[in-house]
Amino acid sequence: MKLLVTGGAGFIGSNFVHYVIANTSHHVTVLDKLTYAGNLESLKGLPSERFRFVKGDIADAALVDELVAEADAVVHYAAESHNDNSLHDPRPFLDTNIIGTYTLIEAARRHGTRFHHISTDEVYGDLELDDPARFTEQTPYNPSSPYSSTKAGSDLLVRAWVRSFGLQATISNCSNNYGPYQHVEKFIPRQITNVIDGVRPKLYGKGENVRDWIHANDHSSAVLTILDKGEIGETYLIGADGEQNNKDVVELILEEMGQPRDAYDHVVDRPGHDLRYAIDSTKLRNELGWKPEYSDFEAGLAATIAWYRENEGWWRPQKAATEAKYKEQGQ
Ligand SMILES: NC(=O)c1ccc[n+]([C@@H]2O[C@H](COP(=O)([O-])OP(=O)(O)OC[C@H]3O[C@@H](n4cnc5c(N)ncnc54)[C@H](O)[C@@H]3O)[C@@H](O)[C@H]2O)c1
Known about the structure:
The protein is α/β, with parallel strands linked by helices. 43% of the residues lie in helices and 16% in strands.
């Protein structure tokens, strides 16, 4: 199969491309604008006979039409993805997440191309800390931030294009990913690289917020399963039962990196910070037979820490500018 992967130079997209090249015989074309979040270094070493990179914007209708016409399937990861940025400047989130997705599904509709839309559990808003409930495919949408509301909007566009125009699409909403190639602005890599730099990690508020962590490779295997066996028009939630609060994650990172567990500082909380996300992935497991490989969060985290230690050349160029931006925001 010839796959067009949008956003393939970003965190999850690049992990997906490596996973596809290692585990299938598919050919991959990546379309990526190389925003601050895209990094060609994340795609180094891929075989040129099965991999091609195209720099461009998913909102560029002519380019998108040409690439979609050549593809058997589109896997759409490209997005503005950082909540904090969306609170400071929402506009790029609308341009990429809404207009970019619209441009892609119009092309997929014209060419009858299979389309898989990557989304997030953040479209469902949040759960109370003491609520035993988890998100399911039936949970009503209730996004909190400009980021999650534009992702919710893009999901609804895809659903409407399936219903109105017969778009051959599936959607997945995944919980928080961790693993290699994640930008140092994000929670886990920021803390790891701060510790490497001898800087105390920074925890938003009390650190009680719970995230449901999944290794990026498990996200990739789930997406391939949905591409292969998913039913058109269906949404699948992807999660690996990895609930942890932020405080525990920081303490685990410190412990794994040989520091005292309490060697971190609290900083002012993010406005509207979602309390808890938790995914029930029963549908994906029962209907499509998927299961995660990385069930031990501590082991996955240790491997991720080792990756950041061994790949300083990958993250170092972004570190100072990222911290300067956080400092400006008082975080
Ligand atoms: N990070 C998570 O934990 C998580 C969880 C669930 C779902 N998701 C979803 O997965 C997808 C990828 O997330 P990520 O964390 O890898 O993001 P990321 O910010 O690391 O990467 C996004 C990529 O998209 C590219 N891009 C941005 N705007 C573009 C445009 N207009 N045209 C072409 N390329 C563009 C960037 O250059 C970058 O390479 C997003 O759709 C996100 O909503 C992320």
